[in-house]
């Protein structure tokens, strides 16, 4: 596909901006009708979407992008129908726009109220996962935002077909289909321009690898919501219940190792090591987890490779785990402070004071006592939708729901008051 | 003063970071005791602070920095006592740290609660206003944050004296005085390094000129809360009450022209121009306001200079105002959309539909009906403290109180649940 002219890039941003203005005032009913039209459109257009996807897959195979990437890129008809189902779930969620957050009547009689409003235009940068295209588009639409999508050149044909379905569906119910734009045709240069599109884009959400997120965070002049990477710790305290410690460590590591809330490092209190380390490592080995241990762990347990500095800092996203014996809760807290990406950490303990100290002192988006780190999830938290998991402290921290895709404004109603 | 060695810069950031960790767990009582000690310290050290300030003033006069800047820089003993009074007002404010924002018990029995926690370390970049040094330090302390201050080389001696008082006061009650740091000795290079100090600084707040804010926003890799500049509009609708229109326009422009919530542009509906424009311009002229009008205004009213494109885009912060006659509410909304910095806009009207459309469609932090734009203020809104007025959409929008200086984290309490 030939690259469009440069001003075509700005035109797409401007279209999203113009559409966002009208979308901000759209009723929940109208937005839900658009979402239903998208779901129906996806089901009807499934064959042509799968055709477009086949072109991307063929190109991906030629370019040898790897089996994992190819699998994430692949859309068959059942997967397209699953996308339609995900869109219908978003219809059921409450609309955050117009919610009154707080308000009061001032002493001089002026009424002030803070209400939720859409950001305007959300930019999304992600990697070759067509499901994210539909996911973000639907969440943005429900929260009244326009969206500019940069989904990676490997999924360009698929994303173009999906965005075409979405735009037609939105227009079919009388809203502005321009609200959803893709800039895939503009390649890497387009991604770079999106990061500097102040005035067109109100917030940028990167989803994907740590490298992608780091690039967006450091190069963007548009405000960013940082999502994602998780070097997640499970700390087994001296007083941990034995079965609970094994269940939680195993679940946190192996339930779904490829996601950000999976555990990467197991810290075990020296006082629990004799009784628990053999059980923990046996269970992990049975689940095919490759383990890397500190010197004390390697000395105690046969067949564990020595860990190095990189072990502790790595988000494996695979059946691999670092294991370290610590002398105290303090040493566990210090290890976490040094290596955590501040996503999720859990302690397994029966001691009240240890639990409360861990909750108070670990500086992560989610801090847990006696639960699997896999519960850090918008769906599990009852938000109904997974916008992503913020690992920054500004605006949103932890699992993000629809309200996190809004800003607020103050409405002030007076009767002629002056100062 | 000789510039300290480069690693001394990182040392100050690290000191703030270490202190912030202990401050996060400090009780409200302990933080209030530190604030009282600061107030007492300022009163006792007033003579030496004034001496330090005299050195800055002398240098400022030699460098011919101008009368306005010199006045903002000047501290006499009454002004120092006023700073102590401002610190005592912050003691009276509720502590946001530890507030439970929301929470629930999940179907599986896990309890989740979202609580307010300090950001960690706040960076502040501002210009030669020693009162901001105390203001930000006290607000940061109350909200449990460390703070790194870059207050401008013109106020370096004054800021050093103030920070010394603050550090000693915090230490005197058993908290870590390193929580408040100045990087003034590191000059412009220090400001640049602060903007890239990811891992040391959690959020950066610029306060000052539009140019300063723009530099910080575009150059910073640390998340920024953008405050400030206001190209603020008052729109007099066709149906406006005559007296109210004059009162609000005059108050919005002249009550305190040097601040960001002062009006810069007056838009008047053509249908109200015959009856109101002479009264409005007479009142503004009597208040010594220089006016710049569009062609229609210049034609109607003698002695008004023609406006140009720059008039509409300028935050005058002085007794100057642009005046434009618009054909309709739509034209007023379009003008505001084009030139507003999205701080505050007000409509004066008796028409319900116009009022509601203005509230819904103006995309600014604060949108008003029949009230002076001067009410956009943390104190007026009942927040008790003025951290600044955010003109961005992420995290905080409009007047910011102490809660806006916090993040949140999720505390999860389980009984061994796994997925």
From TrEMBL, chains A, B:
GO terms for cellular component: cytoplasm. Keywords: Amino-acid biosynthesis, Cytoplasm, NADP, Oxidoreductase, Proline biosynthesis. Catalyzes the NADPH-dependent reduction of L-glutamate 5-phosphate into L-glutamate 5-semialdehyde and phosphate. The product spontaneously undergoes cyclization to form 1-pyrroline-5-carboxylate. Its main location: cytoplasm. It is found in: Cytoplasm. This is Gamma-glutamyl phosphate reductase. It is an enzyme of class 1 (oxidoreductase). PROSITE patterns: PROA. GO terms for molecular function: glutamate-5-semialdehyde dehydrogenase activity; NADP binding. Belongs to the gamma-glutamyl phosphate reductase family. The gene is proA. Its EC number is 1.2.1.41. GO terms for biological process: L-proline biosynthetic process. It catalyses: L-glutamate 5-semialdehyde + phosphate + NADP(+) = L-glutamyl 5-phosphate + NADPH + H(+). It comes from Leucobacter chromiiresistens. It comes from the Bacteria. Residues 48-289 form the Aldehyde dehydrogenase domain. Pathway: Amino-acid biosynthesis; L-proline biosynthesis; L-glutamate 5-semialdehyde from L-glutamate: step 2/2. InterPro entries: Ald_DH/histidinol_DH, Ald_DH_C, Ald_DH_N, Aldehyde_DH_dom, G-glutamylP_reductase_CS, Glu-5-SA_DH, GPR_dom. PANTHER family: DELTA-1-PYRROLINE-5-CARBOXYLATE SYNTHASE, GLUTAMATE SEMIALDEHYDE DEHYDROGENASE.
């Amino acid at each position: 596909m030939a690259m469009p002219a440069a001003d075509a890039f700005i035109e797409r941003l401007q279209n999203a901006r113009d559409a966002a203005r009208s979308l901000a005032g759209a009723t929940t009913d109208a937005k839900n009708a658009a979402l239903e039209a998208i779901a129906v459109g996806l089901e009807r257009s499934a064959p042509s979407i799968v055709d477009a996807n086949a072109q991307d897959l063929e190109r991906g195979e030629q370019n040898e992008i790897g089996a994992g990437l190819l699998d994430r890129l692949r859309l068959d008809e059942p997967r397209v129908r699953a996308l339609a189902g995900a869109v219908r779930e978003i219809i059921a969620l409450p609309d955050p726009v117009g919610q009154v957050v707080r308000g009061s009547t001032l002493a001089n009689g002026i009424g002030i109220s803070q209400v939720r409003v859409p950001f305007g235009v959300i930019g999304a940068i992600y990697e070759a996962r067509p499901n994210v295209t539909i996911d973000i588009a639907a969440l943005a639409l429900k929260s009244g935002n326009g969206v500019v999508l940069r989904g990676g050149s490997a999924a360009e044909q698929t994303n173009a077909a999906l965005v075409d379905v979405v735009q037609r569906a939105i227009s079919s119910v009388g809203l502005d289909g321009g609200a959803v734009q893709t800039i895939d045709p503009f390649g890497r240069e387009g991604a770079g321009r999106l990061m500097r599109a102040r005035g067109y884009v109100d917030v940028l959400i990167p989803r994907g690898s740590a490298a992608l997120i780091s690039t967006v965070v450091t190069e963007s002049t548009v405000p960013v919501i940082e999502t994602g990477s998780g070097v997640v710790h499970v700390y087994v305290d001296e007083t941990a219940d034995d079965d609970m410690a094994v269940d939680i460590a195993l679940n946190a590591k192996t339930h779904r190792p490829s996601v950000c809330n999976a555990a990467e490092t197991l810290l075990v209190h020296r006082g629990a090591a004799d009784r628990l380390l053999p059980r923990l490592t046996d269970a992990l080995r049975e689940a095919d987890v490759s383990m890397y241990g500190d010197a004390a762990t390697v000395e105690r347990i046969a067949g564990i490779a020595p860990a190095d500095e990189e072990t502790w800092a790595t988000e494996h996203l695979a059946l691999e785990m670092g294991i370290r014996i610590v002398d105290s809760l303090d040493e566990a807290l210090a290890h976490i402070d040094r290596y955590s990406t501040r996503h999720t950490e859990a302690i397994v303990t029966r001691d009240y004071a240890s639990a409360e100290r861990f909750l108070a002192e670990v500086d992560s988006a989610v801090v847990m006592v006696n639960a699997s780190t896999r519960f850090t999830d918008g769906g599990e938290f009852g938000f109904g939708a997974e916008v992503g998991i913020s690992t920054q402290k500004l605006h949103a921290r932890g699992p993000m729901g629809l309200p996190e895709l809004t800003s607020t404004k103050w409405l002030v109603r007076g009767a002629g008051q002056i100062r």
